[in-house]
Structures are given as structure tokens and as C-alpha cells.
Amino acid sequence: MTAKKTTTTAATTAQDALKPVEAAVTASKETVEAVVKAGSEAATKQYEQAVSMTKENIEKTSTALFQGYDELANVNKDNLQALVEASNVMAKGVEAMTKEIFSFAQGSMEENVAVAKKLLGVKNAQELFDMSGEVAKNNFDKTLAETAKLTEMSVKVANETFQPLQSRINVTVEKMIKSAA
Q: What's the domain range around 117?
């Protein structure tokens, strides 16, 4: 009877020890999901603002600079093509960033499971403390590295997205200078 109580108590203690780990895994998952959602929302908002500003500027410049309907139609067609090209570049960039975020999240989840298993094998408080510090440091380092990678990807996507629009702006400015001369 005593052996059965000890086994039941040990199982309960192990389950109780896993609760903080499960809570940490859940919190980590929720944090990653929140970051993904916030990043997607921010990228969408910035994209919409860029498209809106570009559209407004193109419309103002086109109306002021071009007298003929044919020339205006050609300019608008080229501007629309540049906008479509920029949209495609942005979509591919956001897709790559999203894949990177999900890859990071999946790797984090797998590591958290491995850490939970290691925590079950802890023999004393010092070992638990040491392991907790190591896990925290590793998670912090990985998060910083992933953030740097995502920042780099964001800058690259922004630059590549703006390139076709910048090209159209340059063409428009050249036409303005020629028509003013």
C-alpha cells in the first residue's frame, strides 16, 4: 500500500512539475502567434499606405503633366504595371517572412518539448536552476538572432518593393523636365 501511494505521489509530483513547462510552452506559442499577427498587420498597413500614397502621387502628377489622353493612358498603364510588380514583390517577401516566422515557431516548440523532457530528469534544485538559466539564455539568443534576420528581410522586401515604383517616379520626373523645357 505504501509503495502504491509513493508511486501515485511521484506521478502527481511529476505532473505538477510539468504544469509550469506546459504553461511556458503555451505562453511561447501565444507570443509567437501574436508576433506573427502583429507583423502581418503592420506589413499590410504599411503596404496599403504605400499603395495609397503612390496612387495619389501618380494621379496628381499624371493630371498635371500630360495633356493628351493617349499619353495619359500609357503612363497610367505603366504605373499600374509598376504597382502590380511592386505588389508581387511585396507578396513574395511577406510569404518568405511568414515562412521564416513559422519555421522559428516550430523549432521553438520542438525545443520546448525537449527542455520539458530534460526538466523531468532533474535531480536537485541546483541542476534545475542551472538548466533554467541555460534555457533562458538560449531562448533569448535565438530570439535576437531571429529578430535580426526578420528585420533584414523586411528591409530587403521594402527596398525591392519600392524599386519599380521609384523607376516610374524617375520616368515621370524626366518627362516633367522635358515638358517644362
A: 2-180
Q: What's the predicted TM-score (pTM) here?
A: 0.52
Per-residue model confidence as pLDDT tens digits over 51-63: 787 778 777 776 6
Ordered DSSP codes for the chain: -HHHHHHHHHHHHHHHHHHHHHHHHHHHHHHHHHHHHHHHHHHHHHHHHHHHHHHHHHHHHHHHH--SHHHHHHHHHHHHHHHHHHHHHHHHHHHHHHHHHHHHHHHHHHHHHHHHHHHHT--SHHHHHHHHHHHHHHHHHHHHHHHHHHHHHHHHHHHHHHHHHHHHHHHHHHHHHHHH-
State pLDDT tens for residues 52-96: 877 787 777 766 655 556 676 777 788 889 888 988 999 999 999
Domains held by the chain: number: 1
